Amino acid sequence: MSAIKKDVCWICARSDLKLVKASNIKLPLSSVDFKITDSNYGHTGDIYSCNNCGFHQCMTMPDVLEYYENMDDPVYEMTRSQRAIQEKNILDVLKRFDTGDMLLDVGAGSGIMVEVATQAGYQACGVEPSIALQRKAGELGHDVISGTIDSLQQDNKYDVITSIDVLEHVSDPVDFLKKINQFLDKEGLAIIVTPDRKSFFARVLGWRWWHYRIAHIGYFDKQTLKLALGKAGLTPVLFKRPVWYLPANYIFDRLMKYIPKIIRCESPGFLKKIVIPLNLRDSILVVCKKSP
């Protein structure tokens, strides 16, 4: 993960930027702030908007890689079975395409996508910066190496590359997508998922939207995502709104963040047994290929 560029837009490289949200985070930062299940919604670094392309980016954050390397998230692992359903749902998108079976998951966490893909017949592997999550993947017998996409062997090629809810965490998204292109086989497909800052709920909730979080430093919409893909030599072939599957108590606890503290309550125990499919249409899934 490269150091954060502070003077030009991360997508179009123009310097016509304006501050649209001042930072409200407490320093110093720690790896706890970067947990996958962090629910401190509305807490971000300074967000700048590019007057040329409209991309929103946190340009004054420090390099965040060390926080991911030291991050652990037991709550994330508690939702493993539900997240496996959503990963299977994402892989099902590929049924309409003819792909090979070599799959790479970038930002693999504890190997949930690798596990699901292996069960589906892929030769799947992943790469993950969190030492704790990568160790958990290894304990479960999944092929996930420690590091970032830069840690891969340069001559590796994959038929499918997935990167689910990773792009919003990187400070050079075009370079990140170029590297996905580099590792993609000539006829391969990549699946990218990232939040959509122009979605209905993002507009309604404003800066309280659940995807405005410390760990998210780049905020895409469909147009800026298409622009970034084009600059990386990737062409979209399909856009979808992904469905997430989560325990009802997980959703309940996060909804409580929008309720005044004086009337908040703990989730009833029975909610743990209920799985809810959730499509709030505030994330973008894009399937893309190498540009001609």
Helix run count: 9
**Inertia-based shape:** globular
What Rg is obtained from the alpha carbons, in whole angstroms? Answer: 18 Å
Order of helices and strands: EEEHHHEHEHEEHEHEHEEHEE
Low-confidence stretches: none
The fraction of residues assigned to DSSP E strands is 15-25%
Measured as a percent range, the helix fraction is 25-40%
Secondary structure class reads: alpha/beta
CATH architecture of the domain at 65-195 and 221-290: 3-Layer(aba) Sandwich
Q: How would you explain this protein's 3D organization?
A:
Helix content is 26%, strand content 24%. The strands form three sheets. Strands 6-5-4-7-8-13-10 form a seven-stranded mixed sheet, with helices on both faces. The protein has 292 residues and is α/β, with parallel strands linked by helices. It has a domain at 65-195 and 221-290: Rossmann fold, CATH 3.40.50. The protein has nine helices and 13 strands. Helix 3 (80-92) packs across helix 4.
